[in-house]
Amino acid sequence: xxxxGPTLGxxxxxxxxxxxxxxxxxxxxxxxxxxAPLRGRPANARLRRPLTDLRxxxxxxxxxxxxxxxxxxxxxxxxxxxDWIDRSIVTPIAGLVPGRTATVLAEVRSSRLRPTxxxxxxxxxxxxxxxxGTLDVxxxxxxxxxxxxxxxxxxxxxxxxxxxxFRPEAFEVLADEAAPTGGADPIRDAPGxxxxxxxxxxxxxxxxxxxxxxxxxxxxxxxxLALAPAVIEPLPGELRARHGxxxxxxxRIAIHFPRRREDVGPARxxxxxxxxxxxxxxxxxxxxxxxxxxxxxxxxxxxxxxSAWIDALPFAPTNDQRSAFAAIDADVAExxxxxxxxxxxxxxxxxxxxxxxxxxxxxxxxxAVMMAPTxxxxxxxxxxxxxxxAGFPTPIGLLTGxxxxxxxxxxxxxxxxxxxPLVVGTHALIEPSVRFASLAVAVVDEQHRxxxxxxxxxxxxxxxxxxxxxxxxxxxxxxxSLTAFGDLDVTTLRELPAGRRxxxxxxxxxxxxEGAYDFIRDRLREGRQAYVVCPxxxxxxxxxxxxxxxxxxRLAAGEFRDxxxxxxxxxxxxxxxxxxMARFAAGEADVLVATSVIEVGIDVANASVMLxxxxxxxxxxxLHQLRxxxxxxxxxxxxxxxxxxxxxxxxxxxxxxxxxxxxxxxxEIDLSLRGxxxxxxxxxxxxxxxxxxxxxxxxxxxxxxxxxLIAILDRIxxxxxxxxxPLAAAVRERxxxxxxxxxxx
Length: 745
Known about the structure:
The chain is of the alpha/beta class. The strands form 4 sheets. Strands 10-11-9-12-13-8-14 form a 7-stranded parallel β-sheet, sandwiched between helices. The protein starts with 20 loop residues before the first helix and ends in a 10-residue tail after the last helix.
């Protein structure tokens, strides 16, 4: 049974097996457990009880559960099913259809453990009957089943028949229902699961992990739901009424154990809305905390330095770039720190806008910094900024983990004294030994690849907070920008500089390889240059470097023996990388064989051809970024993708690249094909780990949640307002400790 779509609707009927008698009989309430919040205890304190409080859960099993994020009773209640199996109809044995899944209620006649010649194979056979017929049931390698199947027992079986025997996916023995123990604890004193939990009705399937059986998880969740009323209701009553939402506890019970198939959709919609609403509220809290923290230096309007630099550019800024300049001017004029995201089409001139922001600091007598996630990207930005500042006596430094000791000490001294106004680097810039005399503007490139604490470290580099401009190399789908970057103001560059030529893209198979080489040689003879991008063999940069070196040697001795071939990869020393790029930029090398290190920051107008090997190994946005290295001059450009995609998704990704040139449209296609976690990389992006909401499928719910939150804030002013009840507490409980994981530079 697939999950219901993202629609907002009427509240679900609360379904599934009845709660444990310890709760249903009111013993817990009489003991004062449910009334505890009235005495000042947090309403969700009971939900923080460890998993080991459940009957039969020891430390070893609890450790297995912790590996999939389940450590408390509350975690169990929030561990929602990803599928549901409809076992609501009991089929008589005489009505079984071979190959069709069915549920059977029968009585055991006999059972035995049958030996086999294979040492690792054990078979349990049972004969059961229900009055309409007799059925032979078979279990493989589950010897313990034979001990449970005593003649005369009534059992529920769910599985399918092959015409000769029945193979169950699940079964339960219908013993007498366990009686309450008489204790007051709805968790420790709860009886075992009710009959039919696994084999009747709409049966939930919860995500599991190594060492955890789905049936065991299902039983745990059923027991944990005795404390569902302790879940904080975070949504204001007006929103629940407007959307027809069930209460928080009812929705959770209905999503885990729906009585009807139709209950799942409304319950899921309520919970997805709640999760997205809380996350949007968390972003607003984060934004407010940042704005109420350290003030930033208020910078006067643009002066002679910026004006002269713009006039000296070899091109006229686009209208989008000028709009970005104006937005930055308005931001840095305030004492509230700028927090702006700059994204745009490949080749739209984001670096020019970033340098504008940094020059605004320099002309005010302050310092600016650009931080990139890798040394290669930092080196490329450094070279690009040097080119954009040609003719201007503006000192600029490069600081990475590979900077030699003596050079590093010199840079640190100049930064601390204020002598060095502009520096580019990696996370080495936020180490404790780095001090700025007067940092005013920070540009963070590919900010989703830094941990939250790493990004915040720049705020602690002086007595004032810097204005921060976040950059991303490729367009981000709207739904992702609202979740990953929803606490930032967004500036978008869609307009390309005048003279950019459209790039023709082909997807070709191995049978057209020689023709592709002929085409490239013809372009080289015309005086053009070409990139050859080596396949993404593994995630190891060392392996990629080896592949690039090997391919460069092969091409230099083979297909391109009449031309100069250069190689570039991330494992090369900085001086060698600079030399290789300088040779290619100067036209001394005709072909640059490289890894994906060229995807950002390289601008050679004469390069008009790109060949990408193993294109199906790359993401869609990365391929678009690579393709953007050509088409920067007056000549028609071509991108040749070599691939033999096996899966439908890989084929759809490559077909989209051939068909579509707009990076924003490609970003939406990429999101629809891969989901939000893969597009940015959940572990490194700061994206929340949503428990039930899914993007882009739930984009409609996200839009509704964001719209509702903004309307409430416009009217009330603060998430902390008393009339919003426990909203702020719920936000911090759910998203207060979210952190992106850092990566090595």
